Amino acid sequence: MKKTFLAIAAAGLALPAAPALADPPPWAPAHGHRAKHSDYQPRYYTSGNGIRYWQGDDGRYYCKRSNGTTGLIVGAAAGALVGRAIDTRGERATGTILGAAAGALLGRRIEQGEVRCR
C-alpha cells in the first residue's frame, strides 16, 4: 500500500502543471494585457519645471514622481546619527529613535518636493 502511494506521489511530481489558457474578461486589468496589445500610446507633455505628464483615457492628467522612499531611508539614518549625538545622557536610545523618526519625515518630504501633479 505504501509503495502504491509513493508511486502515485512520484508520478504527480513528475507531471508538469498545465497553465490556464483562458483570456481574462475585457473589463479586467489583465496584468497589462491592454497596455501591451492596444494602439493607444499616451502623449507626454513637459511642464515648465521639467516634470513629464500625460493625459489618460479618462481625461485626467497624470505624472510620475518620486514616492520619497530614498529620502525616507537616508533621512532616518542621518536623523538617528544626529539624535544620538545630541542625546548624551543615559542609553541615548530615545534620542536615536526620535532623531530617526524626524529625519525620516523630513527626508521623505524633501524628496517628494512641492510639485502638485493631479
From TrEMBL:
Glycine zipper 2TM domain boundaries: 71-111
Signal peptide start and end residues: 1-22
Top-level taxon of the source organism: Bacteria
Membrane association type: Lipid-anchor
Major place of residence: membrane
Subcellular location(s) per record: Cell outer membrane
A Gene Ontology cellular-component term: cell outer membrane
Keywords assigned: Lipoprotein, Signal
Family: Belongs to the rickettsiale 17 kDa surface antigen family.
Name listed for the protein in its UniProt record: 17 kDa surface antigen
Organism annotation: Tsuneonella litorea
Top-level taxonomy: Bacteria, Pseudomonadati, Pseudomonadota, Alphaproteobacteria, Sphingomonadales
